[in-house]
């Protein structure tokens, strides 16, 4: 087994790392693996010789470690995104939001890391720009001065589900409908449900912004986000949490689903973390 892993390390380092498929490679055929991850597995196998009677435990840990090769935690993938929120908050005159990620021990394949960074850069910036209010407005509404943005992951046999929600004022349905009419996407007399209004943000070129700036407004670039996700076989949608509340605002969450092949469950990642501790 050690000889086979050593050969894989050589191929990964000498071939895949230089002339391989890169981060956009087919996850069904390739796993992008830093050499140090393979070295840890090799060291683990070497250590097994000093643990008589621990063959089953070593095999289980090695299997888990192999499953975790080529994966990253969501915290690590989105670190640059969440780090960018502090200067943006200062620019907007708001407090830096409190961001939490609950991944349940789920790790994601490196091939999808770029997609998620691109998508969540839009989503987090949109939440801070037009979702989360100023400190004064939040305090007046009985909220903490700093906004909250939460990302939760779940995994089932078919898909990994990423759910993003903030505690801001909600989705500006009235403004979205107005812009949809102005841009000819819908007619003024159309009887749209709140969900149909919300879905307008995914239409190509849709924007609620009157002037293009470096800061995305709610809905800006959501057609691009949809494209990013669909290129990896996933889907994105907005789920209204109070669809009967009517205009002008509705609380909501953004849900991204990707094929389960892009994720590794908590059993494997917990064993790898225990190995690294």
Q: How many helical stretches?
A: 12
Output the structural class.
alpha+beta
Strands, count: 10
**Strand portion, in percent?**
15-25%
CATH topology of the largest domain: Heat Shock Protein 90
Q: How would you describe the oligomerization state of the chains in this entry?
A: single chain
CATH domain class of the largest domain: Alpha Beta
Unreliable stretches covering 5 or more consecutive residues:
11-23, 216-220, 268-272
The name of the CATH architecture of the largest domain is 2-Layer Sandwich
Main sheet characteristics = 5 strands, mixed
Termini Cα gap: 24 Å
Task: List the main descriptive attributes of the protein structure presented here.
10 strands; 3-stranded antiparallel beta sheet; 2 domains; 12 helices; 277 residues; alpha+beta
Show the helix and strand layout.
Elements (H helix, E strand, L loop, with lengths): L1 H18 L15 H14 L6 H13 L3 E3 H4 L1 H5 L1 H8 L5 E5 L4 E3 L3 H19 L3 H6 L7 E8 L3 E8 L4 E2 H10 L11 H5 L23 H10 L3 E6 L8 E2 L1 E8 L3 E2 L1 H11 L1
Parallel strand pairs: 2-4
Antiparallel strand pairs: 1-3, 3-10, 4-5, 5-9, 6-8, 7-9
Helix pairs in contact: 1-2, 2-3, 3-12, 6-7, 7-11
Brief overview, please?
This protein has 12 helices and 10 strands. By secondary structure, it is an alpha+beta fold.
How does this structure look, described?
There is one protein chain. The strands form three sheets. A five-stranded mixed sheet has the order 2-4-5-9-7. Strands 1-3-10 form a three-stranded antiparallel sheet. The chain has two domains: 2-69, no CATH class; 73-262, Histidine kinase-like ATPase, C-terminal domain (Heat Shock Protein 90, 2-Layer Sandwich). The two termini are 24 Å apart. Residues 11-23, 216-220 and 268-272 have low confidence and may be disordered. The protein has 277 residues and is α+β, with helices and mostly antiparallel strands. It has helices at residues 2-19, 35-48, 55-67, 74-77, 79-83, 85-92, 113-131, 135-140, 173-182, 194-198, 222-231, 266-276, and strands at 71-73, 98-102, 107-109, 148-155, 159-166, 171-172, 235-240, 249-250, 252-259, 263-264. α3 packs across α12, α6 (85-92) runs parallel beside α7 (113-131) and α7 packs antiparallel against α11 (222-231). A hairpin with a 3-residue loop joins β4 (148-155) and β5.
């Amino acid at each position: 087994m050690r000889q086979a892993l050593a050969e894989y390390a050589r191929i990964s380092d000498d071939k895949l790392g230089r002339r391989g498929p890169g981060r956009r490679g087919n996850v069904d055929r390739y796993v992008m693996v830093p050499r140090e991850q393979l070295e840890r597995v090799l060291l683990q196998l070497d250590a097994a010789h000093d643990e008589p009677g621990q063959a089953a435990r070593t095999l289980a840990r090695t299997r888990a470690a192999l499953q975790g090769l080529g994966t990253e935690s969501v915290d690590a993938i989105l670190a640059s995104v969440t780090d960018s929120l502090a200067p943006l908050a200062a620019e907007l005159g708001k407090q830096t939001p409190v961001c939490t990620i609950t991944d349940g021990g789920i790790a994601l394949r490196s091939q999808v890391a770029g997609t998620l960074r691109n998508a969540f850069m839009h989503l987090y910036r949109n939440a801070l720009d037009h979702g989360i209010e100023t400190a004064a407005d939040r305090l007046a509404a009985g909220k903490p001065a700093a906004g909250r943005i939460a990302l939760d992951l779940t995994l089932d046999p078919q898909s990994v589900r990423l759910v993003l929600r903030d505690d801001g004022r909600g989705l500006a349905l009235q403004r979205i409908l107005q812009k949809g009419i102005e841009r000819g996407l819908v007619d003024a007399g159309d009887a749209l449900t709140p969900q149909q209004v919300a879905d307008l943000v995914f239409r190509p070129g849709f924007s609620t912004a009157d002037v293009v700036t470096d800061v995305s407004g709610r809905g800006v670039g959501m057609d691009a986000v949809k494209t990013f996700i669909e290129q990896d076989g996933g889907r994105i949608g907005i789920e209204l949490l109070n669809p009967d509340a009517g205009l002008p605002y509705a609380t909501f969450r953004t849900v991204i689903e990707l094929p389960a092949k892009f994720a590794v469950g908590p059993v494997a990642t917990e064993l790898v973390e225990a190995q690294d501790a």
